Amino acid sequence: MTYSIIRVELHRDERRTPHELSAQCYQTLHELMANAGYRRSYSTTTGKTFELPPAEYIKYGDDPADQLKNAVAAIAKRVMDHEKLFSIIVTKATDFASHNLKLL
């Protein structure tokens, strides 16, 4: 199965200063991302479900990375009102491993 790991980091200003009001902004981001099909957890083949690190999401499917980046940018812009107040990275993958993530 193909999936993408997406990280969205919100900034207070164009110098990428960490956002001091991040709790409410990230909560809004999480809700909008969930409504668009992005998840903050993943399940293993053994049935365990783990929470991804803060500001990271997973989306299953074959959508191109650039298409996902554009879709996520539109969501983040709704939260931050300016495209220079967030950073995004999208990684396509077919396999990954994790360590010490929170078991749900």
Describe the fold and architecture:
The protein is an alpha+beta fold and 104 residues long. It has a single domain, classed as Alpha-Beta Plaits. The protein is 29% helix and 26% strand. The chain has two helices and five strands; from the N terminus they run E-H-E-E-E-H-E. The strands form two sheets. A three-stranded antiparallel beta sheet has the order 4-1-5. The chain has a two-stranded antiparallel sheet with strand order 2-3. Helix 1 (22-35) packs across helix 2. The longest helix is centred in the C-terminal third of the chain and has 16 residues, at 65-80. The two termini are 22 Å apart. The relative contact order is 0.30.
Topology:
Layout: E1 3-10, H1 22-35, E2 41-43, E3 49-51, E4 56-60, H2 65-80, E5 86-93
Antiparallel strand pairs: 1-4, 1-5, 2-3
Alpha plus pi helix count:
2
Structural class: alpha+beta
CATH class categorisation: Alpha Beta
Known CATH architecture: 2-Layer Sandwich
Q: Average pLDDT value?
A: 90
Number of domains: 1
Q: What form results from the Cα inertia axes?
A: globular
What key attributes describe this structure?
104 residues; alpha+beta; Alpha-Beta Plaits; three-stranded antiparallel β-sheet; two-stranded antiparallel sheet; 2 helices; 5 strands
